Amino acid sequence: MSNFLCLFRGGFEDYNKLTQEEKEALNDDWKKWLEELKEQGKLVDGLPLSQDGKVVSAKGGVITNGPFAEGAELVGGYTIISAQDIEEALQLSINNPHFNFAEGTMEVREIVSLEVQ
């Protein structure tokens, strides 16, 4: 088994247009999806992220408001799932509520270990 990071990008414009009731329904959908992963023993971790942030550049320590210029690039949250391979990770992700947003995308990447002594 390997762990896979799912990064959720975009969808903020659509999310910000939702009514409070629609936001609550979406949160229920997220909870249901996460519970299904947990019941299968596939959920490792996952949380939403604030829309606010800063970008730090290594060149001169430049700090800019951000995190990104384009809303479609903004990371809104993450989930770490356990799967046999990337194909299973993609299959587990197919019913994610983030895909309800026209601009919502998800990047799935395997987490590799780094030996630190």
TrEMBL record:
The record's InterPro entries line, in alphabetical order, gives: Dimeric_a/b-barrel, YCII
Pfam families in the record: YCII
Q: Check the record and name the Gene3D superfamilies matching this protein.
A: Dimeric alpha+beta barrel
**From which domain of life does this come?**
Bacteria
Q: Which residues form the YCII-related domain?
A: 15-113
Membership in a protein family = Belongs to the YciI family.
Q: What is this protein called?
A: YCII-related domain-containing protein
Organism lineage string: Bacteria, Pseudomonadati, Bacteroidota, Flavobacteriia, Flavobacteriales
